What does this fold into?
Amino acid sequence: MADLTALAEPGSFRDRDSRVFVTPSGVYRALSARGLEDFEALAATGLFTRATEDGKLVRTRLVDQPAPPGLLPEPPAGVLEHERLPFITYPYEWTFGMLRDAALLHLELIDAAMDEGLTMKDASPYNVQFLGARPVFADLGSFEPLRRDEPWIGYRQFCTLFLYPLMLQAYRDVDFQPFLRGSLEGITPPEAAALLPRRGHGVLTHVRLHARLERRQGDESVREVRKEMSSAGFKSEIVRANLRKMHKLVSGLDWRTPSTAWTDYGDNNRGYDAEDRDAKEAFVRAVAARVAPRLAWDLGTNDGVFARIAAEHAGLVVASDFDHATVEHLYRELGREGDRTILPLVIDVCDPSPARGWRNAERQTLEERGRPELTLSLALLHHLSITRNVPVRELVDWLASLGGTHVVEFPLREDPMVQRLLAAKRDESHPDWDLAHFEACLGERFEVLRREALGTRVLFEAAVRD
It folds into this structure.
């Protein structure tokens, strides 16, 4: 094998019994002797078979392939090979529905694991990924034998990273993503108590009492608290009853998405009629068919119409938008359809997900997780340039940095939406929002393969120059 030490996944160092490493040939997990025992216990259960077949667990097999030293404190006792997921995402990029579905999957798996004498050592949403609009549990190193009279050890983490963000969205209509992006540990019980209303299903038990208990315990170590709780006699029946109550609570949390400028964004804001819309769809479909990308990005996806068109010819389309409510609507539609080719994410391209965590390496930027072979920038650039004040040349340079082929839409100054955006400015600003200037900038970094005028907008197919 190649030198896998350099390919170890930076975010997997926290579990001392397993370490993930990614190679061109596959995704592997090196296991300690204890980690191997835990996996073999899981693999011997019906849960492992059923959940894998149902797509709830990432496909995994034990391989006869030694890993080099350096990945663990001791030489690995075993190596797992995981199914390679097409694109890694983080909870602060998910919608409310995605976080809730990931939480329910986690609860269902731990409940089923207890039937097999197993439990989970943590309760992190970072253990869950999405295949399109379907969650899949990816961290098989989380399973371990259930110990007698031990409480649900992942309870606090479940609250801080799953329950409290969901409550914040459901009870306060406040987006949770900035809180999860601001701290990889989530929202603490005292913070949740200050943020959430006094009334609300589950708030007293899981927020206020939890915060009071945490303040009372003060500096007691986690080990001391667990010992105290175990001595109180936490039978598995009690743990399972609490898990099922939590499942009912999470299932009942709902977010009534507000009406926004983007959920109501109609054809009258797009600068073209039905005939032009058909031509635009045909333009995108032709480019997607020719490129046949493994990975495509649809930036500013809105209702996902063009993401769906690209998905006809792509392995996966990451469909992103900054408007949470819009992306939530798309996720719900895709979930009903069982779609696995479109991955909806809440992304602001002017403030995208940064590198995070230890040495800024645990969580990667979007580009580090996979550069697209096809990028759609439709009904997007004028919002970035006029509303967010990004210079046109900067926009073109950024698109070029992504590589691959692009479909870009440029609305003219007489476009209804451009006129509306410019009217919000104090004076006649943004002189660089000009078709000739845009084409000059585009020509410096791209080879323009096709150009088509549709109403007050111009479509370009362009490939980044080598």
Remarks:
- Residues 57 and 137 are 5 Å apart (CA to CA).
